[in-house]
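Figure S4 source data
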Amino acid sequence: MDFARTDEQRMLGETLDAMLTVASSDWRIVGEAGLDALGIAAADDGLGEEARDAAVVAAAFGRANVVLPWAEHWVATRLGERGDGGPRAADPAAVLARAGNQRAWAEDALTVLHCAEIVGLCRTMLRDAARFAKERRQFGVAIASFQALRHRMADMAMTLELAAAMTDVAIDALDADDGNEAVRANAVSAARVTCDDAARLVGEGAVQIHGAMGLTAELALGGYFRRARTLAQGDGTARAHLRRYAA
């Protein structure tokens, strides 16, 4: 289960996988799943403020392509916003406008949760590509037996696992709260760059393996790819994060 370390986090991810579909892209699912208490300290009757919990949710949303402003909502909640009936914030600009002197932390938190969602999206795109390759036959054999495609899918899997590992490191840096902003910034930017690679390489590979159907409305894959590329265009873009890391 992506980013889960405790039994509770693994159970949360498994529960969300069982209940979520693309049709779950309605904010009511957050209340139904009991996620509204994440980002609130246990002392305030919440479920805790760990970014890892929020990342488990973001990855699950990605695996099902549930398109909701979860990252923005969690960061706004973590910054002290309260209230029911909908997301605390619907876009990054609204969160950052409220962040004040915590703006740098908020920017990094949004980036990390978007990375977690990209990992979830890529996880499903790679799975669907592998399944299709086993079913699609040419020249009397499954295309999964073609060496070129096997190498392509191996590259996709390696890129995805690197993105997941770097995002895991960034989650730890975000949760450390030790005042070392340089370490956090490096970890977050490294994750953002590798997730950009994953969104592109895994998404494009999955679409190409599906052939002409890859971007049609007939397949869910097209929606996953578009969401991954949309997320990859935000958070200052990978190029800006590469410059920040280099600096």
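Figure S5 source data
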Amino acid sequence: MIKRRLEDVAKMLGVKLEKHLDVEIHGVTIDSRKVETGNLFVPFPGGNVDGHQYVEKAIDSGAAAALWHKDVPNPPQHLPILLVDDTLLALQQLSKQYLQEVKPKVVGITGSNGKTTTKDITAALLSTQYRVHKTNGNFNNHIGMPLTILSMPTDVEVVVLEMGMSGRGEIELLSTLAQPDLAIITNIGESHLLDLGSREGIAEAKLEIVKGLKQGGTLVYHGDEVLLHERLSTPGFKTLSFGLKDENNMYPLSIQTREEDTLFKTNLYATDFILPVLGAHNVLNALAAILVAKELGVSEEHIKVGLQSVKLTNMRMEMLSGTNGEKVINDAYNASPSSMKAAMNLVGEINGFEKKILVLGDMLELGPDEETFHYDLGKQVPDSVDLLFTFGRLGKFIAEGAEKVLPKQSILSFDDKKALIHELQHHVNKDVLVLVKASRGMELEEVVHALIGKK
């Protein structure tokens, strides 16, 4: 983590400091309840809650110093305070300066789906030969990414940064801050249609990641995605593509989904790779990570070892065991039509179970056509599925669409999560596979917890 004298922090931020010069800060926090000894506390002004009112409390709790937004009155003169024009901009500037001082290689990752999985795989591959720091949890926005950078050890050689967004301009901001040496766009899906209006708009927003790409940098992108391919016909920087089609720089020759992992072979290596994550769509995430690792000189043998060591962030394609012996795929962290379809196809690919059950909830933030998206998804439920449980208002449209492919008695819709769990538990045993997936706001991990006996 960042360790600097307050005088040095002031210089990094371009502000004056006349006292408390030798105070040393160790790390940064924005939450006064989570202060660790030596932290720099960064408050944000707000309408309902203003973080500046917690500055003295943070320092009493062990913070070494704090920033202070100059428009907020009455800064405590007796405390080690740095007056800045804007505390959020100061946090971002501090992270940019720290990154430039530590000088690791930077890998930036964005996309509609698969960002976190690709981040985890990329970090695992690079960790076989480098000291790596990566985004933790969902710290992937204009506040979270600077905090990720500032928590980076000084001996890090590569930092892997996930870049999320809520609208136009945010990826450009993050990319400009991080100035990646390599960038990945995993895909273009339907997430953020509510904000961006079309898949074309989403593609343009994701391509903002090249705005901060270092000179001589490389963009790794999903080459099967026409919206990306046509916008990168004359890029002005190096590009590498991955996808299922053989015109990509990297593509799979074979993919075999097994009960606990996925076996695949690619055009670039003779070896078989084993990924301890399920699904062909995750092989594509792995291809993006492999291209980055290859660009940074990671050997074939280390790539193979790194893939086998991958551990994904929770609630992303976790294969768990239920209390009645059933297997449960927990993918309850997020959902869009494309990721839902990929997960359903995965269930269709896995053999060795007498019964397959889907538990699907609402996909959020899809805009005015949300009901159509859910209905169309229902029509794509694999016919190998034995039971479909839906949850939520929009889940009912999945159920309606599924009537085109499944018997009506095989489809059950619920508004009450407890009632869904109660009914589901009557259908599970050691010969059953259950997939649980929905947008994060539906909290379908509660269904998973009930099945595996977790309180």
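The two ends are 34 Å apart (CA to CA). The mean pLDDT is 93.
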